[in-house]
Amino acid sequence: MPVPLIIDTDTAQDDCVALLAGLLDPRADLRAITMVAGNVGFEAQVRNAFMTLNAAGRLGEVPIHLGCTRPLVRPWVSAEDVHGDGAGGLDMDFDGCEPEREHAVDALVRLAAERPGELSIVAIGPLTNIAMAAVRDPEFAANVGRLYIMGGSNNGRGNITAAAEFNFYVDPEAAKAVFAAGFDITVVPWAPLTLDQAVFDQTALDEIAALGTPLAEFFTRVCAATLEFDRSVGIDGTTHPDSLTAALLLHPDLVRRSARYNVDVETGSELTRGYAAMSWGVHGLPDNATVVEDVDAAGFHAYIKALLATPTQPARPFR
Ligand SMILES: [Ca+2]
């Protein structure tokens, strides 16, 4: 049976690839896309989500709900230096592309309550919407089946600062609240997991480009800006933590090793704002999350390649 899920996203680059997994993988039943402030300007993120629906040939088929346009207590911090507009300058005709009227937080609460314990959430942006939903409905955490989070580093390096990964850095209060809320959480960390196992080097990118499908072309365009940035910081290729998170929910057999941890997020410090303290069971703290430690990297690469080989018919031409 397909997995009913929502993807909560700050849509830019690899978020688009994660959405493609939700839209095209037969194991996925994507019920909604919820948008949260993160990577790039909110309007650009919404456009990127509509363009991803179009690339998948599914424009108009999955509702997009607009969520929180800023973190809980802090001003928004962008990653536009990393992502540009988040889609490599890709554009299309957006006439008639309307998001839903219902707020993303209301949609999350409603859809989880409709099927208690069945709906999964893949959260690949700052956790503002998820924290808000947990405050809005005290039953929300219990109603959500599984919550897969891309964020933090497992006692490894950050990306926006030495200590912090971007999603937790942008809204550390939300991340802290989510880990305390009682969800069934699986964490896909930035380091070391993503850096070791979810980077597509030039050879992999060339193989994808050679697929010649509309999706391969979309992927190549969308990843271009991040590739440039990643190279400038010494990463040999594009990083795919968000699509890895979606892939692991849909294909748990790709997980080679995971363990229970106590995860908490730093909110008081300026130096280590958003740092994820992942305690591995020897500090007397109750575990609250499963942290993925090792995956079948070749299997993940093959999965993305097969996804991008899918023939699709975008209703609107890209320019
Ligand atoms: Ca993201």
From TrEMBL:
Domain Inosine/uridine-preferring nucleoside hydrolase: 5-301
Annotated GO biological process: purine nucleoside catabolic process
InterPro entries linked: Inosine/uridine_hydrolase_dom, IUNH, Ribo_hydro-like
GO cellular component, one term: cytosol
Domain of life: Bacteria
GO molecular function, one term: purine nucleosidase activity
SUPFAM superfamilies: Nucleoside hydrolase
Gene3D superfamilies: Ribonucleoside hydrolase-like
Keywords from the named record: Glycosidase, Hydrolase
E.C. designation(s): 3.2.2.1
Any Pfam family matching the protein: IU_nuc_hydro
PANTHER family per the UniProt record, alphabetical: INOSINE-URIDINE PREFERRING NUCLEOSIDE HYDROLASE (PTHR12304), URIDINE NUCLEOSIDASE (PTHR12304:SF4)
Protein name: Purine nucleosidase
Gene source species: Nocardiopsis mwathae
